[in-house]
Write a structure and sequence with these properties.
16 helices, mainly alpha, MetI-like fold, 323 residues, 0% strand, 2 domains
Amino acid sequence: MIAYLIRRILYAIPILIGVNLLTFALFFVVNTPDDMARMQLGIKRVTPEAIEHWKEQHGYNKPLLVNRGVKGIGKITDTIFWQKSASMFVLDFGFSDDGRSISREIYTRMGPSMAIALPTFIIGLLCYVSFALLMTLFRATALDIAGVSLCVVLMSISGLFYIIGGQFLISKLWHWVPISGYGEGAFKFIVLPVVIGVVSGIGSSSRWYRSIFLEEIGKDYVRTARAKGLSELRVLFTHVLKNASIPILTGVVVVIPLLFMGSLLTESFFGIPGLGNYTIDAINAQDFSIVRAMVFLGSLLYIAGLILTDISYTVVDPRVRLT
């Protein structure tokens, strides 16, 4: 297992380098350093001297990938890509274009993001699995058909509708919770985003879990359990749920490391000062330093999630451990 983990970590290095290169290329295809300088300084009345001064201050006055003006290793290291990206591999994200520490901002904004994402994840998982088990228990009945129809309707509605509709109904008409913001008494600010996050995911997630349970319930071990006289509830919760844990873990464990990255739409519409809102603001401001840091961090956490998924397989299924 240790050798396997070491191999996976080593495999992650070229993947992260590739993600960095791709992000770098996409960003600078759309924007040049001169464009970034104009955005920060103001498009009107900006002089070439001011642009060059800004680029020099922020390290954008060097070649992008290869510096042909120097010799040796400096051809690679004396470039924007190396100086802006190499330090991220030791989790040093540097500073944004406005001079703020990106690492400090990530640490500060991680809390609000997790305050929304973690309850949404836990409550949502319990609701989705429970609803899927209920539909499986009453499969091929009117309740199952109604449940599947409800899932199709819910998953066909845009996530923006849930956000805007929830804000209008619960906050503006009923005045139960604030429509947006985050501060003292944070609970009242996160209730509505969490509820909307759970409701918006019921359709697709519950249908997916239902399909997993239906696939398991037709297997030989289930027929054997019924032949032994076990009740349908015991078969479902003791045998089917346990054997369906691997495909469930595939989707669940990968998501766990990404929880603190925040939701772009939710945090923007509800004014939550989390990492999702931070990323949106950076994209609008064309702040490459923040964008590449968040993309790198998301890639790193996703790879960590895949490794955690493989480890979790060995916990729930001894056959994986033996192979």
